[in-house]
Sequence to fold (374 residues):
Amino acid sequence: MKNVACLMNNFLKRIAPALALLGLMAWLPVAHAIDADDVKAKLPAKSSLGLPTPLPKPVKLSFCLFDPFGTGGKVVAIARELAVYAEAFNLYADIRPYTDERVASEDFKAGRCDVVAISTLRAKQFNNVLGSIDAPGNLRNYAEMKTLLTQLSKPVVASLAINGRYQVAAVVPIGAVYIYVNDRSINSLSKAAGKRIVVLDWEPNMAKMVSGLGAQPVLADFTTYAGKFNNGQADIIAAPALAYKPMELAKGMGEKGGVIHYPLLQATAAILVRRDLVLPRIPDLDARLTELRKFGLQYLDKLFELLTEAEKDIPASRWVELPANERARYDQMLAEARVYLMKQGVYDPVMLSLMKRARCAHQPKASECSKFDE
Fold:
C-alpha cells in the first residue's frame, strides 16, 4: 500500500491546483488510506501554481462533500487543504461534509450547495448524458477512458455537460471494477445463479441485471456496501481495485475467494455545479472549466498509473483468470445490457455512441465497430 500512497501523494502534488479551482476532490475509496498531513506537506507553493489567472474578485462557493467518515474523514481533510490553494485564485470554498451521499445530492438539488462531488451513478439524475458513462462494459481499459475524456474536453462536446441548472464540471476515473467472490469456483455467469450479490439499493437496474442471472440481489448503500460482503451476507461484490484494502474486501473473500480478472466497467466520480447559482458570480465559468479540463488531461496518465498500481495490492494468487470463451460471454452480455437499457431510456444513446467510438479507436476491427446499435 506504501507504493499506492506514494503515487497518490505525488499525483495530488501535481494536480492539487486544478482540484482546488474545481473546488473539491471527488470521493475515492482509497482516500481513507492516505495521510492528509503528508499530502499537506507535499503540496506546491502557491507561487508555483502556474494556472489561469485568478478570478477578478473574491467568490465564495459552498461544496457538498461525501465522506463516510464525516468531518474527521481524510477526504474532508484533503479537500480543506486544497481549498486553501483555491484562495490564491480568489475562490473561497465552504467545505460541507456529508456522511450520506443521498443527502448531499438532495441538498445540491435544493440549492443548498453550489458544487457537489458524488459517484457518476448518482450524478445521472442531474445529467443523463454524462451520467451514462458508467454503463456496463463502457470501456475496456484506461487508454480508452483517456480517449473518451479527451473527446469530452472539447468545447463543442463539453456542452453535453450542461443540463439546465446543472453542469458536470469534471469526471474523475476511479478504476476498473472487478468481481470479488467468496469462492473461486464462481468463475462463470452460470455459476452466479443462486448466489447473493451486493447491489446499490438506489440503482434498480443493478438489481434487475442480477435477477436476470438467476442470482439474489442484496441491497446496500455506499456505507454498508462492503460490510454486506465482509460479514457473509453476500457471496459476490463488485468494486474497483482501489477499494480492496480500504474496504478490507479480503475479509469477505476468506481463504477460498478470489477476484475475477475481467473489468465489468471503468468507474468514475463526478463534480457538478449548480450553474444557475455559480454563473452569476463567475460569468466566464465555461471558459474557465474548458481551461481546467485541458489542464487536467495532462495528469490523466499519472492517475492511471495510480489505478494500475492499486491492482498490485491484490495478491497474484487471488486473481482468477477467465478462459477466452467466458470473456466473450461477458462481453456479449454487457453489450446486450447496454443496448437494452438504452432502448428503455436508462442510458443516453449519445454517450454510448461516444464510448463506442473510443473503443473502436483502439480496436477498429472489433465486430461491434461494424454495427449501428450504439
